[in-house]
Prior knowledge:
Structural class: mainly beta
Number of domains: 2
CATH topology of the largest domain: Immunoglobulin-like
Number of helices: 1
Strand order of the largest sheet: 3-2-5-6-7
Shape: elongated
Amino acid sequence: MKHVTYRLSIxxxxxxxxxxxxxxxxxxxxxxxxxxTTVSCETNRPDSGLVSLTVSxxxxxxxxxxxVYQGKLKGDREDVLLFRDTLYQTNVSxxxxxxxxxxxxxxxxxxxxxxxAIDGERINVSSDNDCGTTCYTVTNASLDVQKx
Length: 148
């Protein structure tokens, strides 16, 4: 009796594998071997990502003026200012075009002293091949312009 059950199991497994091989990988949360995965595949190339800024408050600071630039800051007239804002919370994100390096400054004033914090990072889009399908991933920019 065990021998017959064993044979049926192998036949069922062989039928499943033969059926799967005929249909191929369909990327519906399955890897190329038919195993379930939790990874989703973004097949459209993203054109934007997030630039997240982190600022700090305290010691009489309740608003932080920031400026966001395109490219690396050089400190001259060639710097491309995209926008200015005043932040009233620690973390703020802006949706911006991908494949661009962004820089930010935050100005902290206390009395007659001014401290300028600067950081920069690029929003990157990378691609990978998943069962013959090109999948895209965005790496957002995280700019830390806290007072140190």
